[in-house]
Structures are given as structure tokens and as C-alpha cells.
Design a protein that fits this description.
Blueprint: H1 2-26, H2 30-43, H3 48-60, H4 64-77, H5 82-94, H6 98-111, H7 116-128, H8 132-145, H9 150-162, H10 166-179, H11 184-196, H12 200-213, H13 218-230, H14 234-247, H15 252-257
Helix pairs in contact: 1-2, 1-3, 2-3, 3-4, 4-5, 5-6, 6-7, 7-8, 8-9, 9-10, 9-11, 10-11, 11-12, 12-13, 13-14
Length: 270
């Protein structure tokens, strides 16, 4: 009877430690989460969920090698858990191991093909590796599942811009803005696409709207100056360029080297 009592107490301690570990993790108490989950795992080292949770706490604490070991073990124990592959994939991306990260995220998507956030994670991993066609494919798949998500339209538009497909970029960015008209950077990116297409008059309101939302964004003033100059609005171009250089003097060499902007008084070094 004593042995049964001790066994029951051990199970209760393990259950309590496990629950406390998850609670600490949810509350952002990562050191406490690691400690209590370690106690739980000492009693049941095959608890894949606890290993995954301890890995997440370790990642948040900067203990990346420890986290990777826990994730490797968790995947061995739960090879059908998409979330564990996702976590390891994102950790490998953080460690600069793009191919390994994509292998994990491919496996995760295979296990959970309707997970929009997971498709976004893989798309971002492709983007960071300059694999823009693959990123566009993932954003397209995500949009089929969540067509009203403005961020997905915005991010796919950025990928189109990176490929030099500015017509497609402007279209996607317009879709993003139709769903979120307060996204300053969607206006900015659409302005860049229109500028690249030679649509200077159409780009001007995009950069002006960006500035309305973020009045200290030097790059928006700089590109506004380019568009104003291209439209023959010399005074407006000079004003925008002066503001850009006031905000970021480091833009001066770029402006001086740009034949569209160099003639303006604002780029003089006097």
C-alpha cells in the first residue's frame, strides 16, 4: 500500500510540474517553465508535448542548442506533429540553416496543408533565401484559404516586386489596401511599383499617403521627390528632397548620383 501511495504521489507531482510548466510558458516565465518541465520529463522522458514546450521556452531564453536537442527528440516521439516540425524549422531558419528549415516546414505543410500561418512561415523562409517564386506559390495557397487577409496580399505583392513583376505587385498591393486602407507600407510599396512602371503621377499620392501615416519616413520623401521631378513639379520635388535629406543625411550621396535629383539646390553640400 505504501508503494502504491508513493507511486500515486509521484504521478501527481509529475502532473503538477507539467501543468505548471505549460502555465509558466504561457505567461512568459521561461526559466520557470524550463525548470518545471525538466522535473516532469525526469518522470516521463517520452512526453513529446513537454519536450516541445521546453524547447519553446529554451528558444525564448536564447538556449538554441538545447532547444534543438529537445525538438529532435520530440519529433522522434511524435513524427506526425506539424507544430513540432514548424518550431524546429523556424529555429533552423534562425540558425541560418535555410535548407534544413525548409525541409521541416515542407513536412509540416504536408501534415497540415490548410494552416495559413504555416504557409506564411514557409513563404517567409523562401523569401529570406531569395526564392520568390516559391514564396509566391505559398502566399497564393494561403490566399485561397484566407482571401480577405490584407497581409497576404501585401506580402505576395512584395515578392512580385522582388521578381520585377511590378504590374502584379501593384495589383496585389491594391488588393491589400482595399482590405486595409491604413497600411502605410502597402502605399509605399505600391508607390515603388508604380514608380518602376513609369506611373509617376499615380505613385505621388501613394507616397503622400505613406507620409501622412509616417511623416518621418525619409525614403518616402525621397521617392516622392523622384516622382515630382519626373512630372515636372520642380518646387514640389525640391521640397520633398530637402525633407528626405533633413531626416536622413545619408541619402545625400545617392541623391547627388541620381541624374533626376542632382540638379536641385537641395542636394548641394553648401
Amino acid at each position: 500500500m505504501i508503494s502504491r501511495f508513493l507511486s500515486r504521489r509521484t504521478r501527481q507531482t509529475r502532473t503538477t510540474a507539467r501543468a505548471q510548466g505549460f502555465a509558466h510558458l504561457a505567461a512568459g516565465r521561461h526559466a520557470e517553465a524550463i525548470a518545471t518541465l525538466t522535473t516532469a520529463l525526469a518522470e516521463n522522458e517520452r512526453d513529446a508535448e513537454a519536450l516541445h514546450a521546453r524547447a519553446r521556452a529554451a528558444i525564448a531564453s536564447g538556449r538554441l542548442d538545447t532547444a534543438l536537442a529537445d525538438l529532435d527528440r520530440a519529433i522522434t516521439l511524435a513524427p506526425q506533429d506539424a507544430d513540432v516540425y514548424r518550431t524546429r524549422g523556424l529555429l533552423r531558419r534562425k540558425l541560418g540553416r535555410a535548407d534544413d528549415a525548409l525541409a521541416d516546414l515542407d513536412r509540416a505543410v504536408a501534415l497540415a496543408p490548410a494552416d495559413v500561418a504555416l504557409l506564411q512561415d514557409r513563404a517567409m523562409t523562401h523569401r529570406l533565401a531569395d526564392r520568390f517564386d516559391a514564396a509566391i506559390a505559398d502566399y497564393t495557397a494561403a490566399l485561397a484559404l484566407a482571401p480577405d487577409d490584407p497581409d497576404l496580399w501585401h506580402l505576395r505583392g512584395i515578392c512580385h516586386r522582388k521578381r520585377g513583376a511590378d504590374v502584379a505587385a501593384a495589383r496585389d498591393l491594391s488588393e491589400a489596401l482595399a482590405r486595409n486602407p491604413k497600411d502605410a507600407y502597402a502605399y509605399y510599396n505600391r508607390g515603388l511599383a508604380r514608380l518602376a512602371l513609369g506611373q509617376y503621377a499615380e505613385a505621388i499620392p501613394d507616397f503622400m499617403q505613406t507620409i501622412a501615416f509616417n511623416p518621418v519616413y525619409a525614403e518616402a520623401y525621397y521617392h516622392l521627390a523622384l516622382c515630382q521631378a519626373a512630372c515636372g513639379n520642380a518646387d514640389a520635388a525640391r521640397t520633398a528632397l530637402r525633407r528626405a535629406l533633413d531626416l536622413d543625411p545619408g541619402l545625400r550621396p545617392r541623391a547627388q548620383a541620381d541624374p533626376a535629383l542632382a540638379p536641385f539646390d537641395a542636394v548641394s553640400t553648401d
